[in-house]
Amino acid sequence: MSGSVSRIFSLAFALLCVAPSTHAASWIEKNSWMSGPRYSGRVPACDNAWALSSIQWRFAHKEGRYWHSGLRIVSVERIHETAFRPWSPDAIPRRFCSGTALISDGVRRPIHYLIAEDLGPIGAIFGVQWCVVGLDRNLAYAPACRAARP
User: Fold this and answer.
1) What's the CA dihedral at 61, 65, 69, 71 to 10 degrees?
2) What is the pLDDT tens value at each position of the chain, 150 positions in all?
3) Are 138 and 101 within one domain?
4) Residue 70 domain boundaries
5) Strand arrangement, sheet containing 73-84
């Protein structure tokens, strides 16, 4: 009985992994074995409201929870794209952006962020990574947020 169940499961899994080459990779392909990258290349613009609100929420959460400060990003100004897919066309599509963040302490600081295809939760949505110059307290993107730029 267990042999036939495992064969049925294996067949079902194999069928789910098969997709036409003109479409983006399925969720299963992205989270298991993939024969090659098939990204759509459709990445939101730098001024995308979801991306900016995600950065603002995550910044406030990080500052409050880990650094015990009340700092938050009030707004992001002078937003511009610095690069789109700067590396191999087979790499995960990334849009690199920069701007000026007005922080709740009244100081304007440079902000660098990227929006990337399939880097969100379980590879299902877009992902955002960001760094505010001068407030990268754990030096994750050091020096001066260089690792958040192309």
Assistant:
1) 0
2) 566 666 665 665 555 555 444 456 666 656 655 555 566 677 889 999 999 999 999 999 999 999 999 999 999 999 999 998 777 777 778 899 999 999 999 999 999 999 988 666 655 568 899 999 999 999 999 999 999 898
3) yes
4) 49-148
5) 73-84, 94-103, 108-116, 127-132
20 and 80 in one domain? no
> Does residue 70 sit in the same domain as residue 122?
yes
* Residues 72, 121 within the same domain: yes
Burial class of residue 97 in the structure, from the number of CB atoms within 10 Å of its CB (0-12 exposed, 13-18 middle, 19+ buried): buried
Q: Is residue 44 part of a domain?
A: no
Measured CA distances, 3 to 12, 43, 83 (Å): 14, 44, 52
Question: What is the maximum alpha-carbon separation in the chain?
Answer: 68
Residue that the structure tokens 């590879």 belong to = 123
Closest to 71 (Cα-Cα) out of 96, 98, 103: 103
